[in-house]
Amino acid sequence: MSVAQQPSDSETRSSWPMAAAAGAFAVVMVGTTLPTPLYGLYRQAWGFSELTVTVVFAVYALGVMTVLTFLGDLSDVVGRRRATLLGLSLAAVSSAIFLAADGLPMLMAGRLCSGFSAGLFTGAATAYVLELAPPGAHDRAAFVATAANMGGLGLGPVLGGLLAQYAPWPLRLPYLVHLLLTLAATAVTWRLPETVTEAKPWRASHVRFPALPRSVRARFVPAGLAGFVGFSLLGLFTSVTPEFLSHGLGVTNLAAIGGVVLTAFAGSTAGQFLAVRFSPERTLPLGCFLLLIGFGLVAVTLTWRSLTVLLLAALVGGAGQGFVLRSSVAQLSSQAGAAKGQVLSAFFLVAYAGISLPVVGVGLLASALGLPTAGRILAAVMGALSLIVGLHLRTPARAGASPEASDRAGAD
């Protein structure tokens, strides 16, 4: 069924488990970006620096990467449903820690726990949504999964900003609302069927470093590098952009700051929607070139301090990230077979390295050179990497490397 067609009643009924899993996915990801517009309030309350903000942000990414490194195949072993329920439990614990937070140590503990939750969810929930899809709806399910991921990440700053700006208890109420959403998502997920036919008990799970089946290794390197660049753009918007907005552009309304961050994730979701209409072999290099333009616009913004250009950078760069994410997930999951959870976890491990390491670098450079200069350096490095990957994917050798993919695209 194409995206433009309306599903029949039977298709709608059979689609509800996929939609429910995607909803739980979105709820968990909302919690990971909920603090984005609140960091300024935390800095005022507890007196830490901009570098500390990037370190707190990196603690979250460390939690994600730790789980993806050592437990990336957990859902392949114990089942998707069990793994996602564990992720929801950790998301609830994270919100509870933020509710009680009274200083930097608890803030970092809450972020670490949130990272553990996201680490379990990124691979497991993506695979779960794909496997709960109705027959013949793999492409639609890939869009639903990645849109739930990016949509949740984008809604987090908006929810946090709106509640902090216009409701009481700005450092408490956002987490209470998210805790209630998490409990509701847990109740829904509890009713979903298991998709791993030979799921094993918890005691069968064990630490295992990511390993890729031979069938996906050639595709993984460019897809992983493109994912690294795409997520570095999102990391820039969710960590240091609020500081630039308030001190560089004079935007102090927390809801408005959340809205600017949302723009990048809205661009990502739009890019994913458009990417469904084309083959991954076309959209992956295109996404790299859009990321190049997006980082260029970020550099312009940091030089001339223009909110309009910043919003354009968010839309264009976000669309490029969406193209990259959707194309990578579609390519890798179609080749992964029974190791889908492990392969997707390995991809998100590389992607989350992109959302953390460059941002920490910006924080370190900003303390010596200032935020605009540090941001321009990041934009130059990531722009160059996206250009290299895009050109590699556009070479004739790469274009002819996977005829089966072209045949599949033609059949679509």
From TrEMBL:
Major facilitator superfamily (MFS) profile domain: residues covered: 16-398
Listed PANTHER family: MAJOR FACILITATOR SUPERFAMILY MFS_1, RESISTANCE PROTEIN MDTM, PUTATIVE-RELATED-RELATED
Subcellular location: Cell membrane
Record-annotated membrane-spanning stretches: 20-39, 51-71, 83-101, 107-130, 142-167, 173-193, 220-242, 254-276, 283-301, 307-325, 346-368, 374-393
Membrane topology: Multi-pass membrane protein
Keyword Transmembrane helix belongs to the record: yes
Gene3D superfamilies xrefs: MFS general substrate transporter like domains
Naturally occurring in which organism (per UniProt): Streptacidiphilus monticola
Name of the molecule in the record: MFS transporter
Keyword Ligase: no
Keywords on record: Cell membrane, Membrane, Transmembrane, Transmembrane helix, Transport
Pfam family, one: MFS_1
Coarse class of the protein's main subcellular location: membrane
Signal sequence, start to end: none
